[in-house]
Amino acid sequence: MVDLPGQFNFFFHSIETISALQGLNPFGGEYTIFAGLEECIRLIANFKFTEEEISFIKKSLPSSCEDAFYDYLRGIDCSDVEVYAISEGSVVFPKVPLVRVEGPVAVVQLLETPFVNLINYASLVATNAARHRFVAGKSKILLEFGLRRAQGPDGGISASKYCYIGGFDATRGSKRLHLAAIPSLLTVYISSS
């Protein structure tokens, strides 16, 4: 049964659609900037259960669980998974499929929640940035300064990237962002006499 074909589709609902806290276009708008695809592809490329994770699962399940199950977990990879998606940075509208993931049903189910998380956050930030760009107009320079205050070890890096996708011009310096080809500007110069 775990090898039966499975698929999930990711799209945003319209504002009129009642949804359980997910699937709505960010900020009550009728468009979204699609982002997060690169992270989803990276997840697929590196997806596997470590021995530490398998050990935790083994301790969490009844002792009657067969060893073959844990062997199955050790062998899971995404080599049979196919992803069809629109381009990252695209303007998307409600009910338009953004991503389709196909593969063995057990693997596809394991990928669904992280995909939702990666795409929702990225698209939220990129859409907010695009709305700022729209209000500011093309002639204004928009800089992103979230690296200092973003939550989590990767929050600032991710937010900087998605603000850039959404239309910001640059961020406040970081070598990692430079490697991702996001322009950065120094904004503070302190001089002591």
TrEMBL record:
It comes from the Eukaryota. Belongs to the NAPRTase family. This is nicotinate phosphoribosyltransferase. GO terms for cellular component: cytosol. It catalyses: 5-phospho-alpha-D-ribose 1-diphosphate + nicotinate + ATP + H2O = nicotinate beta-D-ribonucleotide + ADP + phosphate + diphosphate. PANTHER family: NICOTINATE PHOSPHORIBOSYLTRANSFERASE. GO terms for molecular function: glycosyltransferase activity; nicotinate phosphoribosyltransferase activity. Its EC number is 6.3.4.21. It is an enzyme of class 6 (ligase). Pathway: Cofactor biosynthesis; NAD(+) biosynthesis; nicotinate D-ribonucleotide from nicotinate: step 1/1. Keywords: Glycosyltransferase, Ligase, Phosphoprotein, Pyridine nucleotide biosynthesis, Transferase. SUPFAM superfamilies: Nicotinate/Quinolinate PRTase C-terminal domain-like (SSF51690), Nicotinate/Quinolinate PRTase N-terminal domain-like (SSF54675). Residues 25-120 form the Nicotinate phosphoribosyltransferase N-terminal domain. GO terms for biological process: NAD+ biosynthetic process via the salvage pathway. It holds the Pfam family NAPRTase_N.
